[in-house]
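note to self: the first set is below, dont mix up w the second
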Amino acid sequence: MTANTGQNRAPDLGKLREFIAERDRNAAWFFVGRTAEIAEIEDTCALAFRRFREGKALAGATRLFQGAPGAGKTALLTHLEKKWAQTGDGKPHPLLVDRPTLDDPAALVLAIAELLDPDKAQRFRQTVTRGRAATVGVGPLSGSGTQATATSPPLAGLSELRRMFPPADWDRPVCLMVDEIQNLEPGEGKMLESLHLAVDGLPIVPVLAGLSSSQAVLTGQGGISRLSDRSVFTVGCLDAGQAAEAVRRMLASFCIEAEDSDVERWATLLERISDRWPQHLQNAMQALGEGLLEVGGVLAKVDERAVTGHAHARRLDSYERRVSQEMRDGVILVGNLMAAVRDNGLHRHQVIDTIRARIRDRPEGSSARHLPEGMSPTGFLNHLVHRGALQEGEDHRLVCPIPSFRLFLIGEAVQTMFDKNEFMLEGIGEHSPTEHDARLLTEMGREPEPTDPAG
């Protein structure tokens, strides 16, 4: 008996086409997981609001979610924006803004005013516009005497917001969400610093997302030097079972005709081939969507081999786009470094020592093993972190967050060495180098060029 996952409705192929056309940086259609992260944000916002009602301020409420590209950081923010806008019920007011908006204080405080009271915000708009030059400066705390936790005055119109919107006008806190925070400019950090220190006493909690270099950027550009480890979260793979749940939701949402056993088989398959990495899962689900369109939405007729191949091709394409020119210039060096890092990782000083050792050991004529022009070992390491090739894991060790990306980078180095007829990577396995490198190429869907045994 064939069951329809959409309660006996015809497959929604039009909506399925929309899903396939989505770019991978857009909001996740079938958001799963991240329950601990969401709970942390909601608890912090709730605490900030309680303190506000008590006439106190909560300093250090900023939360940072960082990780490699494709880890689902943007999806987390957009999911929260949609969820809180729909539910209300004491949850925070969501305010997702582009990073440059931080450098326009008047626009930011007006957006907050609109969330609190659209009618009153119109009068506030006139006040801010009329006194824009004054409100973007600094001024004393006003209102009901909320205790600030820093001696600096509130910045950029926040004191005026405080004056016109006393505690009685706030029904819930505001969660200010900003993505791509690793690109923060110096001027944009002033607003974040003021909110982080809670010098205005308002229940506005910054929740930031960015690449693995974001914490260092906030310290340098944002002036947030007291962001504790408990406030920083690394976003990575989904938990076991969550990717499969996203596939089930997808099939149900599009009313796909399928037996329960087929649904479970595909859910298990996509969880496995995606490594539970959000971006790869999205790509695999879109590949499945393409297969469904070809057979009119009947899951049992989908070509599993074709879907797996298309998902793999999308993954390789994403990796190709992630590799910078600097990484291509030092392709063999990157491959050696990825081989040395292994699964358990290396401490930062060990990675830098490894880079230096590989440079010293390069053979004559190995142009792809050197550092990119103008880069030091430390600079190159920071670049790899920025590109998502490395990030801090357990015990502050640097690891490659996606095992298949590490394998891809090693494979790129091996292919280059085959092309150059150079010796193989050091320290990447117990097999002989040639056997091991050939296996790596096979796993990455490559075929090594035959080499001349005579050299």
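second set (the one i keep forgetting abt)
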Amino acid sequence: MPHGLTNIMAPLLALVVWTLIVLVWLYVRRIPAMRKAGIDPAKIKGSESYASLPPMNPKAVWVSDNYTHLHEQPTVFYALCIYSHLVGLTDGINIGLAWAYVAIRVVHTLIQVTTNYVPLRFFVFNVGSLMLMILAVRNVLWLFGI
């Protein structure tokens, strides 16, 4: 495995790159869907006017929702990776957990932007949450020398 992939910051970078890929995906899906629905972006005043907009292809909304989700829970992941790096808890277990979390977020995205099958998406989300919990517990134990 290349040396960079065994650094706790590599999975952090990978998730940042994935988030930017989803941003491009959002534009690729959303702009044509808005045009097809006859939505004029200049007339949108903010979230209070969304209810009055014509319906848009759900897949365009799903990718937008996923992009938002990539700015929610992953902030905890970023903090845990940075903390692990700063205190030196960058063993194979934490690095493996970090890469597993990134893989889980990619799977979560692929589910949400294709089928949006909520029971499966919820399960995958919970597996990712478990990865974060384990990372957090390992860091707390490290802090107290346990």
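remember for set 2: The radius of gyration is 18 Å.
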